[in-house]
Amino acid sequence: MSASGRIITSFNRSVLGNYGRIPVAFVRGRGAYIWDADGRKYLDFFPGWGVGLAGHCPPAVVQAIKKQADRLIFIANSYYHAQQGELAAQLTRLAGFPSRVFFCNSGAEANEAAIKMARRWFQVVKGEKRYEIVTVKDSFHGRTLAALAATGQPKYHKGFAPLPAGFKHIPLEDIKAARKAIGKRTAAVLIETILGEGGVRVPSPAYLKALRGLTRAQGALLIFDEVQAGGGRTGSFFAFKQSGVIPDAVTLAKPLAGGLPMGALLLNAKFASALTPGTHASSFGGGPLVCAAALAAVKVASAPRTLAKVREMGKVIRAGLEGIARRHPHLVKEVRGRGLMLGMELNRPGAGVVNRCLAMGLLINCTHDTVIRMLPPLVITRKEIAVAMDILERALSAETAPAVYRPRV
Ligand SMILES: *Cc1c(COP(=O)(O)O)cnc(C)c1O
Fold it and tell me: What is the CATH number of the domain that holds 118?
């Protein structure tokens, strides 16, 4: 049995089977590459479901973790430490509006905090009975119960009833439906600036502007979920900067701490009184170690040179995908995305393509059944992109034949 096979066999005896796992066990990563337990090297165009924006083991983050781990790993939020304050100030500066920041440990928790904040703002600060949260169909906001209720995909709701009440889902880009749904009961509209899990769909700036107008007119909050699209992924640190629409709050997570778990809610300072001492909390949120890692990761991801490279490499990949789409019009419906967040919609399930890419040493993802998704790291080079495009095209060309990937177990 291979080394991967031994790890997988023992793993499956004891770990809950709530993930569809690809049968490879990894032991080491560096930049855009990752190695499995049998020494095989892969080019990773989907590091960590989007967590690995800076690549595997980014040197600045590794150094920051080593240094901080030696001094102070953790203290609770009943005390102060410098790193959390510095990180909040840095994120506020990047957001460009006066904000206050709450730190937690994941995207779902950040959205959960946003939902609780919006409800409490109305029910306690404003004394209004508002509670409704409006989100869009095919959205993804996380797996905790409220974040799940916000998620506009019924397949994820199945078997978890009753979900928290007060969530409405409207079709993306349908301004008429938005006008009908957003009213005096609406506490907030919550929307991803780019829908990731829902198939890499980019809402038009006109639609986001319309949501800004409607929420303002009805006195409701506009909250952007940038858990996947934020943190530098699209070529600006916050994706909303490219739409010209300023939200009242924004959530971040996946790449924020360079691979350590961290989520954040940035809230316009004028709503800060929604969450006073004792109203919301996280034991682990914003500890010294994770904040030190995040300070290093954010410094890299927000540097103008980095963001210019994200835009440039994003264009190179996009051109590659569009070339593939032109040569395979019978398989590819559309290429979408921005920066290093790209999707290619097929006219069929994409699992076979993902498996053939894996067998040829390229890691990608398929979401929403038919959308090939790539979230490559910002250290990617033109040469690596050329290699990836070649593998992808060969994997796609084999699509007429059934997928026969045999895991090396
Ligand atoms: C991944 C994701 C989440 C959930 O984040 P977790 O860290 O898995 O809880 C929420 N929103 C968006 C847009 C995401 O991509």
Answer: 3.40.640.10
